[in-house]
């Protein structure tokens, strides 16, 4: 039997799975204890969230400060492993405060559920029949979640399109669903499955996929902020940021890194608050490609006063009802720290953080080069990887920065050298 083939592994308790894993992989008792530490997540809760659980893995949790969004102050939890992101977002938010902070709007918590019908005899006539039966289809969908409907949500409309594919024409029915304070995947998928038999009957075809779309282009946030040129570092920095944006707009290789900077902020808040980071990434990058070319999610320009104006528009499918946001105690605590009362408020703050982090990265590139600030923080991580702690780790990091040699091999040399000089 191959070691990855372990029938009944899922039936074992968490300690039994770990014991099996130790036997198969050779990890030590100390390594096993490290993995079994689930941090702020109770082991029994973790065991119910996903399959084959053996423990947990934590990320640093930092707090981004200085944020003002739509006139309200926020302390923003961010969970991630990359240095300089929390500091960068906090700095950008402080600069934005000079001109009143971030102004953010949203298009509502609307998601799309798709039902794919194939082998449809007459696609155009099938489309017409589906639209004529819109009320019946929506009623069937809304019967699946009366609570959501009672709160003002539910399926509001249906769109039908005929598309060409490698397997021939397909009739795709799209449920337009107001998800309220939920991200919406469970509700939308349930609705799509419920109306599938009716879609098959009306089209004369066969339904295969019935699932939510993560291109949440009806669930957008738009964040805008003005950054005073003096606070940024002068008109040269403003010009540099605008040129950086122009580069991203013209070149997809640069644009990928530009948008990654935005997602550094968005995903860090999403992780801290128990959101679906994969859905957010998929939605963001597909939205960036909606024109047929991959483009920046943000725009940057200089206003009449010479100040920098940034605008970010992107999908933001998040929720406070259901999922890890409700199950994970750390996520619940972080949402309480943030103070978001609705999914839309959370989405707006995340949009502001995305714009702030984008500005932080572009400012660093334009003003001093990304490495200067980033590598100071990175040096701490490299030093820590040698086993150094406290003042020793700080000294190793400072020496590497002074030498401009921030590498593990150099950190190890310094660790061995400096450890000998310290009293036992």
Briefly, what is this?
The chain is an alpha+beta fold and 424 residues long. The protein has 18 helices and ten strands.
Head-to-tail CA distance between termini: 49 Å
The whole-number mean of residue pLDDT values reads: 94
Major sheet description: 4 strands, antiparallel
**Helix-strand category:** alpha+beta
Name the CATH class of the largest domain: Alpha Beta
Which architecture of the largest domain would the CATH scheme give at its second level? Alpha-Beta Complex
Q: What percent of the residues sit in helical stretches (DSSP H or I)?
A: 40-55%
Name the overall outline: globular
CATH 4th-level superfamily of the largest domain: 3-hydroxy-3-methylglutaryl-coenzyme A Reductase, Chain A, domain 2
Task: Name the features.
Alpha-Beta Plaits; 4 domains; alpha+beta; 424 residues; 4-stranded antiparallel beta sheet; globular; 3-hydroxy-3-methylglutaryl-coenzyme A Reductase, Chain A, domain 2
Note down, in words, how this protein is organized.
The chain is α+β, with helices and mostly antiparallel strands. Helix content is 51%, strand content 18%. The protein is built from 18 helices and 10 strands. The chain has helices spanning 14-25, 29-36, 43-49, 85-97, 123-132, 134-142, 146-150, 185-203, 229-232, 235-250, 252-272, 277-288, 324-327, 329-338, 343-367, 370-384, 390-403, 408-421, and strands spanning 61-69, 72-79, 103-106, 110-118, 154-163, 170-178, 206-213, 220-227, 298-302, 308-315. Strands 3-8-10-9 form a 4-stranded antiparallel sheet. Strands 5-6-4-7 form a 4-stranded antiparallel sheet. Helix 10 (235-250) packs across helix 11, helix 10 packs across helix 15 (343-367) and helix 11 (252-272) packs across helix 15. 40% of the residues are buried.
């Amino acid at each position: 039997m191959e070691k990855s083939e372990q029938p009944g592994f899922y039936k074992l308790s968490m300690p039994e799975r770990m014991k099996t894993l130790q036997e198969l992989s050779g990890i030590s008792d100390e390594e096993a204890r490290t993995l079994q530490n689930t941090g702020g997540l109770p082991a029994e809760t973790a065991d119910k969230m996903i399959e084959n659980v053996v423990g947990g893995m934590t990320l640093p949790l930092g707090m981004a400060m200085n944020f003002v969004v739509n006139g309200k102050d926020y302390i923003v939890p961010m969970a991630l492993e990359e240095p300089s992101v929390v500091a960068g977002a906090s700095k950008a938010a402080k600069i934005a405060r000079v001109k009143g902070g971030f102004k953010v709007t949203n298009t509502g918590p609307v998601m799309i559920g798709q039902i794919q019908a194939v082998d449809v005899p007459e696609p155009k006539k099938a489309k017409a029949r589906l639209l004529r039966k819109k009320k019946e289809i929506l009623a069937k969908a809304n019967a699946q979640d009366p609570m959501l409907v009672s709160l003002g949500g539910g399926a509001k409309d249906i769109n039908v399109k005929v598309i060409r594919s490698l397997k021939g024409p397909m009739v795709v029915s799209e449920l337009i669903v107001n998800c309220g304070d939920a991200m919406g995947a469970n509700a939308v998928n349930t609705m799509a499955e419920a109306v599938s038999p009716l879609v098959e009957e009306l089209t004369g075809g066969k339904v295969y996929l019935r699932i939510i779309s993560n291109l949440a282009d009806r669930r957008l946030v738009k964040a805008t902020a003005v950054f005073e040129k003096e606070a940024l570092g002068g008109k040269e920095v403003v010009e540099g940021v605008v040129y950086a944006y122009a580069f991203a707009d013209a070149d997809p290789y640069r644009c990928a890194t530009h948008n990654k900077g935005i997602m550094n902020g968005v995903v860090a808040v999403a992780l801290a608050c128990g959101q679906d980071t994969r859905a957010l990434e998929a939605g963001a990058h597909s939205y960036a490609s909606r024109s047929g070319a991959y483009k920046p999610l943000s725009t940057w320009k200089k206003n009449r006063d010479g100040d920098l104006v940034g605008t970010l528009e992107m999908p933001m499918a998040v929720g406070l009802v259901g999922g890890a946001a409700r199950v994970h105690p750390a996520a619940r605590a972080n949402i309480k720290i943030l103070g978001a009362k609705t999914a839309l408020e959370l989405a707006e703050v995340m949009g502001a953080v995305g714009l702030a982090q984008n500005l932080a990265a572009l400012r660093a590139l334009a003003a001093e080069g990304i490495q200067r600030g980033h590598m100071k923080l990175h040096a701490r991580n490299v030093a820590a990887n040698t086993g150094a702690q406290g003042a020793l780790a700080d000294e190793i990091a400072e020496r590497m920065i002074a030498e401009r040699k921030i590498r593990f091999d150099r950190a190890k040399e310094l660790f061995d050298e400096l450890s000998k000089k310290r009293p036992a």
